[in-house]
Amino acid sequence: xxxxxxxxxxxxxxxxxxxxxxxxxxxxxxxxxxxxxxxxxxxxxxxxxxxxxxxxxxxxxxxxxxxxxxxxxxxxxxxxxxxxxxxxxxxxxxxxxxxxxxxxxxxxxxxxxxxxxxxxxxxxxxxxxxxxxxxxxxxxxxxxxxxxxxxxxx
Length: 154
Fold this sequence. Notes:
The protein has three helices and five strands; from the N terminus they run H-E-E-E-H-E-E-H. It is of the alpha+beta class. It folds into two domains: 1-33 and 126-154; 35-120, no CATH class. The chain has a five-stranded antiparallel β-sheet with strand order 3-2-1-4-5. A hairpin with a 2-residue loop joins strand 4 and strand 5. Helix 1 runs antiparallel to helix 3 (129-149). The longest helix has 30 residues, at 3-32. The radius of gyration is 20 Å and the shape is globular.
């Protein structure tokens, strides 16, 4: 079996998965900008992933959250800070601004109140980055597979 053809096919499939996931996340992020909000409470703020800050290794790279909110007498728990990956320095800024047990504005899907987010909308500085990454995975994977199939590589 041709390794390059197999690798190209695998990269294509992964790119398709990533592209599908990023399109869904982008659509939800755009919709979340129109969702109503309610005040809830943060029950967990966890920073993780090592990063060298001023010569010291600190856990600040990524963010996990958990929050509770109530809509029409029904209790809900959410864990999604945003429809994109929140990374340093945003993680540290978030943790400093919103400690555990603080009140926080929660945006929820009025059609499905169990779906919620703390930061509505797509990433401000790179709204299409995940879409581009998925598309590149598909394009490069297809190129590798086609070139391998035609005997040009591999």
